[in-house]
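Weekly structure sync, notes
Attendees: PL (lead), two postdocs, one rotation student
Agenda item 3: pending single-chain targets
PL asked that the sequence for the first pending target be pasted directly into the notes so everyone works from the same version. It is reproduced below exactly as submitted, 214 residues in total.
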Amino acid sequence: SKLGISPLIGPSFSDSEIKNYLQRFKLYYKKEKHIHKDIANNISKNKIVGIFNGRAEYGQRSLGSRSIIADPRNKNSKYKLNFILKKRDWFMPFAPAIIDDHYDTWFNSQNQPSIYMQKAVKIHEDKKKFIPSAVHVDGTCRAQYVCKKKFNNFWKIINEFYKITGVPLVLNTSFNTHGISTISTPKQAIEHLLEGSIDILYINSYQVELLKNR
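Predicted structure, written out during the meeting:
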C-alpha cells in the first residue's frame, strides 16, 4: 500500500483509568456522547483543542491521537499556538490535516500524499484564502493526508468540521510545548490543560474545559 503500515502502535488507556486521573485532579468533566461533532464545533469557534484518544502514534509526528488542533481558517490560530502553547518563533508552521477524499481538490496530486506530513505540497491557488494559517509564503503546505481506514477517529473529527464549515482540514500540531517530547500519559495531558496551553481537552470520551476548572 502507498500509505504503508499504521503508526498507531503506542499505549492506550481505558476510560476507567482516565476517569481515575480526572477525579484525582478534582476536575469538572463530562462524558461527551457526540464527541467528534463537539470537537469540530469548538474548533470552529476558535477554541484550541487537545486530543488524547486511543493508541498513541509511534514516531516524531502527532497524527490525531496525541494532537492539538485548531481552525485553519483563522489567521491568528498559528500565532496563538506559537506564542501561547509552543512558545516558539512566530514563523514556524503547522500542518493542515485533510481527509482523504478531499485531498485532490485542495492539493497538487502529482506526488503521493504523506500521512506523516513529510512533504510540502502546492495548494491550489483558489484554496489558499480559506486556510491562511496553514499556507507557507511560497504557496505550499506540509499537508497530512488523513486516511479514514487508518485514522478513523481523526477522520471523523475533520469530517464533522467540514460539515460545519465547508473546509475539510484542521490545523494539527503535536501535543506538547516547544522542546518537550509529545505527551504520553493522561497526567501530562491534564497538566497541559491546567497550565492554559489549550482551551479544551478531549481525553478518550471525556471533555474537560479549562474555564470550568479555574
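Discussion points:
- The chain has a mean pLDDT of 91.
- Strands lie at 30-31, 49-52, 66-70, 95-99, 121-122, 140-141, 144-146, 169-174, 200-203, 206-209.
Action: rotation student to compare against the earlier draft before next sync.
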